[in-house]
Amino acid sequence: MSLLTTPLPRRHSVPVRVGNVLVGGDAPVVVQSMTNTDTADVDSTVKQVADLARAGSELVRITVDRDEAAAAVPKIRERLDRLGVDVPLIGDFHYIGHKLLADHPACAEALAKYRINPGNVGFKAKRDTQFTQIIETAIRYDKPVRIGVNWGSLDQDLLTRLMDENQANGSPLTAQEVLREAIVQSALLSAERAEDIGLAREKIILSAKVSQVQDLIAVYAELSRRSNHALHLGLTEAGMGTKGIVASSASMGLLLQQGIGDTIRISLTPEPGGDRTREVQVAQELLQVMGFRSFVPIVAACPGCGRTTSTVFQELAQTIQNQIRDEMPIWRTKYPGVEALQVAVMGCIVNGPGESKHADIGISLPGTGETPAAPVFIDGEKAMTLRGPRIAEEFRELVIDYIEKRWGGPVKGTQDAAE
User: Fold this and answer.
1) Residue 107 is assigned to a ligand binding site
2) Which domain holds residue 106?
3) Which pLDDT belongs to residue 308?
4) Per the database record, which ranges form the IspG TIM-barrel domain (predicted)?
């Protein structure tokens, strides 16, 4: 039996352009997020969209649930443009999306993509009519559409039909398997209907949101097998804190390893007063630790043990990590390539020196009972030993100096312009 040690090649999907961002095809996996503000509150929504974009969200979805929200969308877009925040905005529509898009053409124009749910785009006889109206609006304004199935609002007529068919066939499938099939069929049939109306395949992204890890893996594996649409990955209702992070990473990590997924969102339930940008950070870290993309320099730090009763290395690792996060918006422009930097902050002599040698720049702080000296390794070689009360501060200065020397050359084009 062989073990999969490297990711499978990305599955071929039809690329979809969303504003200035390419999703699918040969493009890197795209990180996206969603606001939790009242979209009608322009000030708070602009601030949160800007915060998410600056944290690294390459697409941001906003709720468009009523006239006041739809009327606010062009104002939000205008304000963001004035701030220099060009992140594409995705409108999230449920129930009355057809009416909002028709009544607010400026909203339809300002959005870079529409997200609709075939389970609640309309009911009974109105379903096909209202779905058609939204697709025709997308065609008119040349916008892509994400057809996002959610098992919390699944088309009950489709589910009932599949359950009846399964029972008539002697119930060869479990209820869970029928549910998964209904989710897959809802996405594929809706995409087929959109294409029949006239929406090009390169304008369609599919998603199928469930809240259980094994369901997500099974549904997306089947979607991948049965279509070449660009796929948006996301575990809905993932949960709060470590539970949401673990569940999302386990499911999406496995799918990404199999080459499935063109854009992802980590749907974390924020803690009261929590930072919404946390979900962006987790999505970036998932892609980075798996080797798919580089967003920010990696700080490796040992977990600590009885040999490291001092908290100095913990505090230093946290300080370096926070500094990197805070400075990255500036560093991306000032130091192209700095996201590949690897820093090691280790707590004692057992593994500290060796781990530090593997990083671009690393430090091995003295552990309990060790001589108060901290060797620093740069590009695999011991460069110096720090001593005294300013070890942490001096190492931070060394990190900045290393970045400046390695990535702080002339901005591309400056030399040519000078000549």
Assistant:
1) no
2) 16-290
3) 76
4) 15-284
